[in-house]
Amino acid sequence: MRSSGSAAPVEDTVRALRRLAPGAFLRSPPTPELRLLAAALRDCSPGALALRHPDAVARVVLGAQRRALRRAMTGFFGAEDPETARLVRAARLGAGAWREHGLRAAALGWAEVRGYRVLAGELCGVPVVPDEEDGRAAAELTVAALLPAVDAGEGGREILGSEVAGGASAFLDVRSVRVGERGFRVDVHADPPVEVLRDRAGLTLRALWWNGLGRVADDLGYEYLLLAKDPAGTGTVRHWCHPRPAPGARVLRLESAGYRGERQVLDRASAGSTAEVLVKLELTVRLGA
Predict the structure, then answer these.
(1) Which residue among 159, 163, 232, 254 sits deepest, i.e. has the most Cβ atoms within 10 Å of its Cβ?
(2) Residue 186 to residues 79, 220, 236: CA-CA distances in angstroms?
(3) What pTM was estimated for this model as a whole?
């Protein structure tokens, strides 16, 4: 299962929160800064948070970057890049002023490579004014604090009726819509084209990989939160949505998040490229009893 607070871009999740179907259960953010930002997102775009509430954004982002630094210092999550390796070595030195100096320098290098402006500013003793990207990062952290946990149980009642004519893609097929106590699960089978051919570059693989759904709405105008998605390696992508379909809703509109295109020259393993292919297909399914 892949989830980082939400399985959709933060802008899409914020839009869904504003149009959320009745019956949703949202958590209360644990800090005053997150509660302030959650209230602001009702009418403020994620990128604009830094302009409206710069202090709260800076504190939220700094807290997350400090937590990431502490995790990296342990070395438990790998130290493949040079900056992380230096950080882990500095953290394992003995106590004393030399250790503190080396650790601060290593932490600063680690933060700068990752673009952690707010943390780097703190380590240098120079406060940083948060920018639009910091606002988006704070919005993602706020959304993660709001969303309920995913219920990955296999139970639930099948409510998939039929696919509405004209709403389908040749590559996508909705296999199941199962409703549970607090939400519903949508299984979509993806069969995008894959081909191997020989061109001027040699033997080449060209493929499209589906990114899953990006938006779920109904015929009443409500939207639903995409809490997680799981490709499962079977061609079928499973999506966990919240809350349950609204009373009176008869149709779900499932908007594709697009495809990831890949081109790989098989004769030379190092040659290849990937790109996001933004194809906004919409699957429309009718709900049964």
Answers:
(1) 254
(2) 37, 19, 10
(3) 0.80
